Amino acid sequence: MIAGWCYDSVSSSGCRQPPGTCKLRHDITKCSCGLVLYTYSYESHIHGRRHQQIFAGIQPPVSRRRTGARTKQQCPHCRPSREYRENELQAHIATHTVQERLQTALEDAQRDKYGIVVSGPEGIDFGIIDEAKQQSAMVVALVQRTNQDDTAVPISLTKCRMLSSQRQDEPGDKFSVTVAPTSRFIRSGQPHKIFITFHPSYAGRFEDTLELVFFDISQRRRFVIQRKVCATVGDLADHKQLAPKALYTQRKCRNIELDGPIKHSLRPPTWTPTKWVSKLPQFDIPQKLVSTLYTPEGYLKKSALQDVKQFLPSSFTTPTYAQHFQTLVYLEEQQMKLDLDDYSMENVEIKAKYPRYELQVEGLSEGRPSVVVGDFILIRPVGQPDKTWFEGRVHSVAMRHVSLRLSDDFNTYRGTKFDVRFVLNRLSFRRMHRALVNKNDPARLLFPGPEHLTMARPVTSAMLEEIAPLNRDIGRNREQLETVAAIVHQQRGSVPFIVFGPPGTGKTVTIVEAIEQLLKRDPNSRILACTPNNSAADLIAQKLMHLGPTDVFRLNSMTRKLGDLPKTLRKFSLTNDNEVFAMPALERVLKYRVVVSTCISAGALPDLGVKLGHFTCIFIDEAGQGKEPEIMIPIKGLANKHTNVVLAGDLKQLGPIVHSRLARDLGLKESYLARLMQRPCYGLSPWDGGVSGGLGVTIMQLVKNFRSHPDILAFPNEKFYGNQLQACGDPLLTKSLETTDELPTKRFPIVFHSVVGRDQRESSSPSFFNISEATLVKKYCASLIAKKGIRAEHIAVITPYHAQRMKILDLFHRDAKLSDIRVGSVEEFQGQERRIIIMSTVRSNAEFITSDIRRTLGFVASPHRFNVAVTRAQALLVVIGNSDVLALDPLWRSFMNYIHIKGGWRGHRISWDPKANVDDFAEGVRSKAAGDAEETMARLKALIVSVGEGGDAIPLADSDADEIDGGLGDGLVLREED
Ligand SMILES: Nc1ncnc2c1ncn2[C@@H]1O[C@H](COP(=O)(O)OP(=O)(O)OP(=O)(O)O)[C@@H](O)[C@H]1O
């Protein structure tokens, strides 16, 4: 008679509480007699049995409404009072988060109920509507009655509306709804047709909810059935080309234990043999550190922050410097090792391509996991009793697979399935340790103070006059010239000199000039120029190319892909016949006057035999971006007591990336540049012997921006640099696109194009893409490149997600004119500039926009990343994104306000008052979050009253029914039947 009504199956309704612990009814089901029964977890089965006895054989009830009296079949246990329901609701609210409760209620609202079936249970999708056609589209949803005797139990459709029509800030002008027939009552065999019409006006994704309110007269209950409605307006061909090939499923982390012996095999890739003069020590992570701080499962213990103190020195001074940073480097390595273990694979196949083996690795192109040539991968045939792991060496890395060499005994396992573990490449960590433990004249480099400044003098006009600038621009700017003069006149063995300045102030150009001046003045000078990343190192090498390949060498890691090196730099690098980078012999290195490399690659130089002090001056550009131990690879690894060090950077741009939370908390996130700048001798007040100011002697600040249009500079200048920056760029360049058609307001060269797209993911990649934004990026690029004088190298596209990068490149490859446009992340563009920058911010999740989303918004999460991204453009900046999502962040909100007020807005209209004050960032976000929560709760309560929570509809009390009859004012109210 009754299906499942007296079971204590609380969890089956989707409640997150363990079965039996939640105090609210979750399993509400119907007796065949037509009554609604409730199962209360705390009333156990007794109520059910009693109910069964009471109701056995009873006929369906007649309408209470008509008789005006409660039928005697009504079970008092099944009819909790309003007060009782309120109490339960409160108890439930106390044990569930707002999101959980709302989710449960929304899922419930979308279920068909009481024999009423609405088409489109998964949602009503208009599909992709061609933007070019601009035609209205219509879909028809059916409402049908299936299993009820409609004469005895009439159900009427009392309201039909789109929810957006209820929101004041978003007039429901996109979707509209009509119903046929216009009768209130739903009868079997006579479906009601709901006509939903969509009127596209601009590209993007449009979402709404169709809400149908029914009234069951016999049970005196109101209930709601909702359907999500969506439409996407855009380029049909792009959507077809970029649509996800496979549905996104979260990749399961598999941590396969290393529980068997490892069979090593020496099968290095086709590298040119290098004459290493010394062997890099291992610097293995101390086992004690791991066992003290981590659980056997690899989680950080709760006591780790306390326990780590035993591995750290009690003070941070020159003698304890190495121990302090070595501990942090061990922590970082351990975390990266654990992260990599999550990429282990079970039961996979390996293709034999003798003498190599091919292993498919999902996510390889995104660096998940990151594998480079020369890495080791452990492979074990499944089901072997001895559990031996075979060590494979990576010989090449493609988009989706790696090619490995293994030992000959591995051949016997052909056709078998394998378990795979990736092995962290430890080279960079070992190089950091080796540099840290070097004991070469460290105090002036690590903790510079007034005692190291005895020979320091400010730059005099005589010193300035002595400089004949090779770059005439430098000659015209006194600050840069002074900086060059200060560097050139530094005594041998001075404290590090800092060139500090916001974006585009010419730091790189200045240090390049200083390098050339040093070379010119002293034929014996030898320069090492390093940066934390390859693209910034390429930039410096390109600026020095005119010195010729006999003097300048671009040292590349043997694992770098040749294709990533700018073609112009090939003759400044060393490759072997297999097009793989090679290490030069010591004699060759010693001949070069300038070596340019990343900080990590500079760690190869001591192993090649380069002695401490060989380089007279070591320059580090973008110094704020590297971790201190990484920056120490060239500094402590190669400087002696005579070597000078010059750092250039900006603390408001990208900082070091640190994976270990513990290492971050202990200071690894602070760069060497940031730490030095806190020391008194680097104070930005004029030179006073280094007691509290060093301007002009130990540090120079550049404030003239030569890169960007004044309007592009204005916002970051105000937000990050206290309006200290002066826009001094060449107007011929910075104002060259002031009248381009793309601008909504001429002479204001910034566009914010708001588009409500959809952020999607595919297969196992956690990276997001947004087709609507990719289409817009393509359109802007195509229209700009069609203009006279604009070429692919003038444009760059910045996007925070790898998947979006790949989708945009996919579109660009279809058009020869666009295929050379560079698309990359903010990190790749730090230090670079382009005439036109187009940004795609990707995230567009319109549902549940609460504070938790802020963590994953890419650009939004980091003001530093935002600053770097918007300061790359010289003449035109186009930002494409979902304004409603970005507005969650006060910084973005004020940026969008700035653009809107200046007339640079396009697309989806702004949904807030751009003139409202957003100065108080934190307060704004807090009140938004609180507002969201309140709105969410209001929606939740409304739904709970009408549809019940976690179950079926709750019968209304008599007063409820009266309220409903008199109160169906909003939405489409249907005509009473005659
Ligand atoms: N004195 C100058 N006169 C004219 N243009 C200059 C001058 N100095 C630098 N520039 C130009 O300004 C632009 C920015 O210079 P550069 O890349 O050196 O700045 P940066 O401070 O290193 O920037 P970022 O912090 O973004 O790396 C370049 O196009 C450069 O040629």
Structure commentary:
The structure is a single chain. This protein is α/β, with parallel strands linked by helices and 978 residues long. It folds into five domains: 10-108 and 956-969, no CATH class; 113-234, Immunoglobulin-like (Sandwich); 265-425, Efflux pump adaptor protein, beta barrel domain (Elongation Factor Tu (Ef-tu), domain 3); 438-542 and 603-701, P-loop containing nucleotide triphosphate hydrolases (Rossmann fold), CATH 3.40.50; 710-919, P-loop containing nucleotide triphosphate hydrolases (Rossmann fold), CATH 3.40.50.300. It has 30 helices and 34 strands. The strands form seven sheets. Strands 11, 12, 13, 14, 15, 16, 17 and 18 form an eight-stranded mixed beta sheet that branches. It has a seven-stranded parallel beta sheet with strand order 21-22-20-23-24-19-25, sandwiched between helices. A six-stranded parallel beta sheet has the order 30-29-31-32-28-33. Helix 4 (98-109) packs across helix 29. The longest helix has 27 residues, at 921-947. The radius of gyration is 34 Å and the shape is globular. Residues 1-79, 848-856 and 943-978 have low confidence and may be disordered. Bound molecules: adenosine-5'-triphosphate.
